[in-house]
Amino acid sequence: MLSARSVFEEILKDDDAFRLFCSIAASGESQGGWENGRIAALVPEAESALAPKISRHGADEDKHGRIFRALLRKRGLSPVDVPPETDYTMILEQHGIGLAHEKLKAEKPLTVADVVTYLAHSRVTEQRASEQMRLLLKYFAGHPDIGRAVRVISADEDNHLAYCHEELLRLAAAGHGRVIHRSLRECALAEIRVHRGVSLAVMDHMGRILGWSAAKRKVLAAGIHAAYAYERAVGWRRMVSLAPPGRRDALGGPATAAESA
After folding, report:
1. At what angle do helices 4-13 and 177-210 cross, to 10 degrees?
2. Residue 163 contacts residue 130 (beta carbons within 8 Å)
C-alpha cells in the first residue's frame, strides 16, 4: 500500500536515497543556522533582548545539521551535493521570503521591521518543520538508528515555533499587528508554493534512485498537488494564526547538545 510511511521506509532502506535525504536536510539546517547567527549579530538595539534567543535558534539549526551528517557517517555515507531545485531554504530566499542574504552579509544593523520579517518567516517555516518532524516521530520514534535524532529535532522545532508565536504576539501588542498579519499571509502563500515545487523535485530524484514506476510517480505527484490545493484553499491559515504558546520563553536558555545518532 502506498503511503507516506511506506515512502519514508523505502528512502530509509536505500543508501543512495537516504544519502540524498540527509544531505538535503543537513544543508537546509546549516543554512538556517548561518542565517540566525547573522540576524543575532545584527539585531537592532531596540530588540537586543532577542539576540540570545536568535543565537539559540541558530545553534539548534547547526546542531540539526550535525545530527543529519552523523546519521550519514553511521552508515558509512558521505553527503552529496544538494540539487538546486530541492534547496528549500535557498529557494525561499530567492522568492524574497525572509531577509535577503545580501542584507545579512552586510554589517549594517537591522531594523525592527526586519525583525518582524524574520519572525514572520520563521513562524511559517517552523510550522512546516514542526509538522514534518512530528510525522517522522510518529513513524520512526522507535527506530534504532534515527529514533533519538528525530526526538531531539522534533522537540527543538516545537520550541522554535513557540518562540515565534510569543515574540510575534509581543510585537503585535507593541503596535506592529497589521504588518505582522500582512507579512505572515504573504510568507505562508509563498511557502506553500515553494514547498510544492521542492516536494515534486525531491520525489522526482527519489523516484529515479529507487526505480519507481511511472504510475507510482504520478500517484505521488497527484498527492503533492492535492496537498497544495488544500493548503492554497484553507490550510495556509494554520501558518498565520498566533496564540500564546504552552511553553513560554522556549529559547530562553542555552542550546542543548546533540545526542549521538
Report:
1. 60
2. no
pLDDT in tens, 73-101: 999 999 999 999 999 999 999 998 999 99
Residue located via cell numbers 546542531? 63
Q: Is residue 121 within 8 Å of residue 237, measured between CB atoms?
A: no
Q: How far apart are CA 20 and CA 205, in angstroms?
A: 9
- CA-wise closest residue to 118 among 159, 198, 179: 179
68 vs 33: CA distance, rounded Å: 14
User: In whole angstroms, what is the distance from residue 50 CA to residue 217 CA?
Assistant: 45
The answer to whether the beta carbons of residues 189 and 234 sit under 8 Å apart is: no
Return the SS3 of 236: helix
Question: Model's pTM, two decimal places?
Answer: 0.94
Output the CA–CA distances (angstroms, integers) from residue 155 to 129, 142, 148, 149, in the order listed.
11, 15, 11, 10
Cell of 39: 540576524
Q: At what angle do helices 112-140 and 4-13 cross, to 10 degrees?
A: 80
